[in-house]
Amino acid sequence: MGAPRGPLALICGGGSIPLVVAEAVRRSGRRVVLFPLRGWADPNAVEAFPHHWVHLGQLGRFFACARQEGCRDVVLIGTLLRPSIIDLRLDWTALRLLPRVLAMFRGGDDRLIGSAARILEERGFRLLGAHEVAPEILVPSGPLATKRPSVRDQGDIDKALAVIQALGPHDVGQAVVVADGYVVAVEAAEGTDAMLARVAELRRIGRLKTPAGVGVLVKAPKPGQDRRFDLPSIGPRTMEGVAAAGLAGVAVMAGASIMADPGAVAALADENSLFLIGVAGAGA
Known about the structure:
The protein has 10 helices and 12 strands. With 284 residues, it is an alpha/beta fold.
């Protein structure tokens, strides 16, 4: 990336990852300006940074504020469940692009995010991945907690990676739970936390027959995914969900996934006797 090229605009969804990225960018000596999304970003967390609140659909406000702050580079990061078109607060700039905005919603998440990126780039902004401005947030390769995956766990990891590889062209989610060779859950619109809650409920009602301590959560990018957007991420809440679901541990693709608060994540893994490992992708 070379030397910083002016302030960075960070469009923030929910969760702790946006603030992890913002802190890392600030430590690097680069000014960062947050654009928290109303209804998603934590109001208390953004106060430590210069920021401008925006609603989903306020393209004109974002363009004007980002240019006023001198931002050319933009990063999109954080939790944001796919909105309905009626939930958008379209300003005049967005209304002028209404046919394109409507077309963005006729497809999967990759189409939606990619179309938004092209609109920003046409206005002179440069879209970057969070890992490009804060490479230290990427999950390293190898074990990250005390416990190691068993031979059975490794087989489940390999199968989950194969499932992500197979479903990726259909723009399906980035997380899979496999237990003793059985595909228990595939992430869809609900997100990882809700998927893990679903697995915990399946175990509670007896639909998941494998004993507690069997099964893995695997997260990896979809094949061909634009890695500037929506890299798989884990944090303390992920580990809590894995523990509640009675799984053995977590594997994430090394160098292509983000971890919030690595110390807390590793500590939760150890407290709950879970493994945590960065792995190579399928076919790598």
